[in-house]
Amino acid sequence: MNDPVSVREVMNREYVGASESDDLLETTELMVREDQTTALVLRGNDPVGVITQADVLGYLVSEGSLESATVGEVMTESVPSISPDARLPEARDQMAAWSSDWVLVTEDGDPLGTLTEHDILSTARLESETTEQVDQEAQMATTGQGATTDSATAAEDSFEEQGICSACGTFARNLASFNGQLLCTDCRDV
């Protein structure tokens, strides 16, 4: 009944980026400020590695100081990646294969964003709620009962938290009604 959700619909288009020569302490402070567990290491637009909180902690324990270190000294060179057109089960399998809680979303070698376990779990919850609502509506239709005001109110409230943007078609956590459309933050700014 429902098509599987694609990575493009739920991925986070914002990520922390750094270059190999960047100061490790400054990059770590940026990761903390942006509340990100990973930073993508780029050479131009090409992803060449990643730095995680675990990498920084490991370096701190073994070396004792972050002050003179660069991102290139600490980064992990392998980057798990996936196409934006892949389906979420494939992304979940890719994360499991890499023992990672995130993957980089790339198209033609260019980074588009990231996908985390949290993104997948949030979508699974949304899909189950949508399936449950469709099942309830089908049951009401077969029994001849109308929708209750409680279920109508719940359906109206649910879009304010997360859903698919009417303009760009991506999954967003903060939709708002604007000129009769539900828009994500990026599309409202345009």
TrEMBL record:
Transmembrane segments: none annotated. Residues 126-155 are annotated as: Disordered. SUPFAM superfamilies: CBS-domain pair. It holds the Pfam family CBS. Keywords: CBS domain, Iron, Metal-binding, Zinc. Residues 138-155 have a biased composition (Low complexity). It comes from the Archaea. Residues 160-190 form the ACP-type MB domain. Zn(2+) binds at residues 165, 168, 184, 187. Fe cation binds at residues 165, 168, 184, 187. Residues 11-68, 75-130 form the CBS domain. The keyword Metal-binding applies. One of its GO terms (molecular function) is metal ion binding. PANTHER family: CBS DOMAIN-CONTAINING PROTEIN, CBS DOMAIN-CONTAINING PROTEIN CBSX3, MITOCHONDRIAL. This is CBS domain-containing protein. It comes from Haloarcula rubra. The lineage of its organism: Archaea, Methanobacteriati, Methanobacteriota, Stenosarchaea group, Halobacteria.
